Amino acid sequence: GSGVRSQRxxxxxxxxxxxxxxxxxxxxxxxxGALLNKFDIAGSLGAAWASVLSAPLGATVETLQGSIxxxxxxxxxxxxxxxxxxxxxxxxxxxxxxxxxTATALLxxxxxxxxxxxxxxxxxxRRDWINLATGRVxxxxxxxxxxxxxx
Length: 151
Hints:
Elements: H1 12-17, H2 23-35, H3 41-54, E1 60-63, E2 66-69, H4 70-85, H5 96-113, H6 118-122, H7 126-133
Antiparallel strand pairs: 1-2
């Protein structure tokens, strides 16, 4: 063979829904990094800022779940930042635009699995929907069987 791997393309909703398959690996890696004091968020952001601003948004990057456009990948990183920023001991209050991007992306995940519940989820305050969609709180009623949509 040519050595080139054939990877499938994942969109935002598929990528976010697929995190369930890797949740134990992600959790273990984050906890080990925290114990070893390996998190330098400000330094990492500073180093990546120029690359992010000049990235060709239509290009693809390879992930554990397949290829994804840079634009869609940045949306998934926004979702992770908003969701896990709230998990910190001193929670980070998300920027309203980032929170809106996150809520919409999670609604798109719900639309793929339970389109009949999107209107109900959309009627919730954004923060409440994000917490239900990611399992930070347990849903009741019709959304109980459809959430969390990502872990």
